[in-house]
Every structure is written in C-alpha cells, then in structure tokens.
Amino acid sequence: NIYFNYLQIPKVKILTTNHAHRVGLSDAYMSQHSTNEHIVRVITLYDKINLDKEKISSGVSVIFDMDQICNTFTDCASCLANRGKRYNCSWCDDIQKCSDGYDRSRQQWIRAQCHRLAAADTCPNSMEDTYDNYHFSSSSLPSMVQFEKRKESSIATSRSYSTLHTFRTIVITLLLSVLILSLAALAVTYMYAYRNPTSPAGMWLLEHRPSTYIARFKRSTGSI
C-alpha cells in the first residue's frame, strides 16, 4: 500500500498556467526505438489515479490499496481466470508472464511477440511434454542399462587393480624391512666383534679378515 500523509499544507498560491495542480498516482512504461543516428526512449502513460483536490487538507491521510492486476498472477490458470474482467489478462508461455500488454514489461512482451501468441483462451497442453518425457525415458532405457553394466565392469576392474597394487606394496615393504634389519644386524655384529677380539665373533673376524685372504692368495701364487 501507498500512504499520502498531509501533516500541514503551506498556504502558497501556485499559478496553474505553467504547472497543473494534480494529486494522485500514475504509472508508465518506457520503450526504446533505434534509429540510424541514436536511440529514442519513449515514456508512455498507461494508468493514473487522480484525487479530488478539494478533499485534500492538512491532517488528511490517503491510502492507496494495491489492485490485483495482470502481472501479479504467476501462472496461466490464475491469469486466464481474470481474463475479460477489469483487465484483459493474457498468458505468454514464452516468457512465463501474465499481462494485458500495458505494464512495465511491455517492451519484453512486444519483443517476444506475446501480443500475437497470447490470444488463446486456454493454457498450453502439457500432454505432449508428458509423452515426450515418456518417449525419452523408454528409448534411453537400453543405453542406460548398458551404461550401468559398463560402469559395474569398470568398478570391478578398478577393485581388482587396487587389490593387486596393495599386495605388491605389502610384499615390497616386507622385503625392504628384512633387508634393512639384516644390514643393521650385520653392522651390530661387526662392531661387537671388532671391539671384542677374544669373543667367538671376534675370533671368526680375525680368521676371516681380508688380510688373511690376501696372504693366502700371495702364497698360492708364489708357490706356482
């Protein structure tokens, strides 16, 4: 709703020669027309409400209630239900709007040829859309089944590959662990034998040290 509250109207005389005295509301739409040189914008008044100036005085409030015009309806059924009443409402299915052709969406209405296409008194039939949807679902069913089969096959292949990859990873990890532990045990044994030459490990290391093998090799070659 719109409220006009006149708390105090100043007593000023305004000549009506160059400025008409009007009290009320008006609405208009703007349209654009292109020419070779520039764009022309035209504002067209399509509705107005004039109040009686004699009833306007200080302390008066005026309330404008919103009227249910065509562009307030958002579906075809409610739009055509108000056709032929105060406003000649029509439904344009291309832009999904209800209008009598004279509101702020007039340029869109004209551009979409709604003033020619919205002449029917009935809403568009949805049976063809239902048939098209059913036909699409039925015809695409085999391909969808094949797609599901290919999808299941690819999932099974992916799972088997993942299992094989996991098994290989476990085997390689175990081998590396055994190798590292063996090298660590050999290093610890060598250090123990080196620091304790009288121990069995130390005696074995003395008997099998590289210099012993070199001396044996020299003796064998010298005897030849």
UniProtKB/TrEMBL annotation:
InterPro entries according to UniProt: Plexin_repeat (IPR002165), PLXDC (IPR031152), PSI (IPR016201)
Entry coiled-coil feature ranges: none
Pfam families from the UniProt entry: PSI (PF01437)
Keywords for the protein's UniProt record, in alphabetical order: Glycoprotein, Membrane, Signal, Transmembrane, Transmembrane helix
Topology within the bilayer: Single-pass type I membrane protein
Residue ranges of the TM segments: 169-193
Subcellular location per the Swiss-Prot or TrEMBL entry: Membrane
Residue intervals of the PSI domain: 69-115
An example Gene Ontology CC term for this record: membrane
Domain of life: Eukaryota
Record protein name field: PSI domain-containing protein
Originating species: Rotaria magnacalcarata
